[in-house]
Write a structure and sequence with these properties.
Elements lengths: L39 E3 L9 E3 L7 H16 L8 H10 L22 H20 L63 H18 L4 H5 L15 H14 L25 H19 L11 H4 L2 E5 L5 E5 L11 E3 L5 H4 L3
Parallel strand pairs: 1-4, 2-5
Antiparallel strand pairs: 3-4
The chain binds CU-O-CU linkage.
The site of CU-O-CU linkage has 8 residues, from helix 6.
């Protein structure tokens, strides 16, 4: 059963009781028993943690890349009984969005996409992913890099291709299930549903800049346009995405996923399918940038500081994760709306799409 966090008429999502609440067909389920302590603790803000700086993936030094590679090598090698393994991180994402979790007494599975939980849930997911990597590396200052795909600069190193470090087939950051046309130097096509394109790089730079502007600056005029429509306990799927969940966030997923899958894989694997996307390490760099754009939207768009939805069902909803020690922890949406309290920030990169076009 789920831990009931809510009372009265509230339809805030209660924290799932992982790993038990996985559905009967064992879809995307987490290991049972898992390696951590029983019980779910409530998240509290870290007190003595250094602020971690998330940097653009095209500008990392060699020593950092080595560490990142080491962390993913270890993540890949962790046993299936460990919820921190890359496979289980994939399953955890799958669980929250691919018909994995059912609330007792409710007909429909939990869905964190296509609605107002998209941004906060993924912030939580990469927060814990980052804590796990930091623990593996025994480095409190370690932060995820971001894939700077909103940067259409024509000068290398490029932000708008898959970062080189994720494209080396010998690296643990590589994933075999990708589209051939998503390999650098191909520029990301934010306006595609699948794979290859015959648009030129120059065309794509202009198109991508316009799209980023139209979605994030023009399209995100109110919290509800930006975050997406309400999703409450018992709802059937998300009712409507915020303005950049589908495009460019979703189109970039689709662009990376394979068109001709390897045997045993489906078209779109890995990045293009909910159930498998978090198996590709570039997923985390993609979501770090998605999170960064949320941050930019809040603070940098002309017109001043923007705000969050204030509906209590949004603020009080809770989600369960595995922390760096594989212990269960639940987090409220209201706890992740200010990234400073989570002790990370983003190294700045130019954002000409906000005001000056190219
Ligand atoms: Cu849960 Cu980028 O998707």
């Amino acid at each position: 059963t789920l831990v009931e966090a809510t009372t009265g008429k509230s339809r805030a999502l209660p924290a799932a009781n992982l790993p038990e609440d996985c559905n009967t067909i064992e879809r995307c389920c987490m290991p049972r028993p898992y390696t951590g302590k029983p019980g779910i603790r409530s998240f509290e803000f870290p007190k003595d943690q250094p602020t971690r700086i998330r940097k653009p993936a095209q500008h990392l030094d060699k020593a950092y890349v080595k560490k990142l590679e080491k962390a993913y090598k270890i993540l890949r090698e962790l046993p299936d009984s460990d919820p921190r393994s890359l496979k289980n991180q994939m399953n955890l994402h799958c669980l929250y969005c691919d018909n994995g979790l059912y609330f007792p007494g409710h007909k429909y599975p939990l869905e964190v996409h296509n609605g107002w939980f998209f941004l906060p849930w993924h912030r939580m997911f990469i927060y814990w992913h980052e804590r796990i990597l930091a623990k593996i590396l025994d480095d409190e200052t370690f932060a995820l890099p971001y894939w700077n795909w909103d940067n259409q600069s024509p000068e290398p190193p490029f932000g708008n291709t898959i970062p080189e470090i994720y494209a080396n087939p010998k690296s643990p950051l590589y994933d075999v299930n990708r589209n051939n046309c998503s390999v650098p130097p191909f520029v990301v096509d934010m306006d595609t549903r699948t794979g290859c394109t015959n648009k030129t790089s120059d065309f794509l730079r202009v198109q991508n800049t316009r799209l980023t502007y139209s979605q994030i600056v023009l399209g995100g005029g109110t919290p509800s346009l930006f975050y997406g429509l309400p999703y409450r306990k018992g709802d059937f799927g998300g009712a409507g995405s915020g303005v950049f969940e589908d495009q460019p966030h979703g189109t970039i997923h689709a662009w990376v996923g394979s068109v001709d899958p390897l045997p045993g894989r489906r078209p779109g694997d890995d990045m293009g399918n909910f159930g498998r996307s978090a198996f590709d390490p570039v997923f985390y760099a993609h979501h770090t940038n998605t999170d960064r754009l949320w941050e930019l939207w809040l603070t940098k768009i002309p017109g001043g500081q923007r705000t969050h939805p204030t509906d209590p069902d949004f603020l009080n909803s809770e989600f369960t994760f595995y922390d760096e020690d594989a212990n269960l922890v639940k987090m409220k949406v209201s706890q992740v709306l200010d990234s400073r309290k989570l002790r990370y920030k983003y190294a700045e990169m130019p954002t000409p799409w906000i005001t000056n076009g190219l």
